[in-house]
Amino acid sequence: MSQQFKFPPANTSSKSQIRDYLRELIVSAELLPGRRLSENELAQEIGTSRTPVREAIQFLQLEGLIEVRPQSGSYVAPIDMQNLMSSYLVRETLECRLAEEAAKNCTAADAQQLKRIIRRQKECQASNNDKAFFESDEALHICLMQIAGYPKVWDVVHAAKAHLDRVRHLAVRDPVSVARIIGDHERIVDAICANDPGAAAKAMKKHLSNVFHVIDQVKAQNSEFFVG
Asked: What is the pLDDT of residues 39-59, one digit of tens each?
């Protein structure tokens, strides 16, 4: 392979561990759509046999993250627009409702926690730390669900949004997109801290819908990443 993978975590040997490792590389856009995946080279890189690698690839094929082409091999799948829309609908339905609930429940201590996360996002922006910014983005949405009183909903959202995250990871490499995301987050947090459920849901819906602008932007630069 012309591009080395990031070093896998220690003791990555089981099918589930290899699956999670490859899934993260694909979702985080470290492995871009169209990248060929060699079972032999992956097994050597990870330090395991081909069997768990093959089983992990088969699982990720079912998730739509890897495509297996007969007589050709395995490749990172393109970003499917139908999968993106499904991910978006899950997020919009759940997170707009939970933004309302968070606004009803938000205490002064909750407000301080949300504002700390916003400050952390600005620090990541200033240092151009894409990975840490994405993590702080996730932290904000998790925090909102905790304030709403439904922390387990994050498990549902997280499981559904892999395809959407592929685009989001590409977006955080763009300074303009990062600034837009922070602005959205500030409006959401302001509404929640003001205990205004209607404004919180509206701000969340606008924030989530901005993914379509990001999709258009990424497609204009890399149309080969997408299908459908």
From this structure: 999 988 888 889 999 999 999
